[in-house]
Amino acid sequence: MSNPRKYTLLTESTYQGYPVQWKEEQSPLIKEALDRYIDQIEAITSHYEHVFLVRFDLHLPKSSGDALVTPDEGNRRVSQLFATLKENKFRQRKWGGQSIKTSAYGWCNELEKAKQVHYHCWIAVAKGRVENAGYINARPDGSFEGYGFIGMIYDLWQELNPEGRAHVHCNASDSMRINSSDPEQVKAAVHWLSYLTKARGKVTFKDTDGDPIRVRRFDGSRIKRKVQASNQDNYANPV
Questions:
Q1: What is the DSSP string of 152-175?
Q2: Amino acid 97: pLDDT
Q3: 218 bridge partner residues
């Protein structure tokens, strides 16, 4: 039997020079997740002067009885969604007439009151490629239609969940524009994303015998920072 994953818990309101969402008597933050998110925000802002950042939540189909999607399978589907974006959708020249060559993302799973996990996600791309998050609307017949960036994510998420409709949540307040040359805007982005790293809801999963099992609780992109003499607007030609 494998040991459950161990993470370092942070109980401080500032980390690596960034304000983060922790206060006394609140859930601590998972250091390893926060490290990954900070690294990737710093990386994407080294590539582009102007960055568009969007947060969204992914839910698995509602279960019928005990037929739940396992945490490992849910993680696989989320990873596949981001892989499809990077390897397929972003390569298409449909983003302001161009492709998206570099993007950063992260996700974490949570299990609180619901029977199965849900996912908090974020993705950052060059502003100019994506200007707004888009939307998802309910039709009178009970079906749904998506528009723009989040509409595409909604469609992909349905394809990855054949058991039934899989809810995607994102609204107008779930996006942010970052001027990479403004340290306060970069700090604001890290502060915003730090909420996703809270330990509450990041449970230790157990098998049918009640023994803890290894299940990844978060993941993210691994893009490298662009080394440059000065931070300049180069989003049209990232490396």
A1: HHHHHHHHT-TTS---EE--GGGE
A2: 81
A3: 108
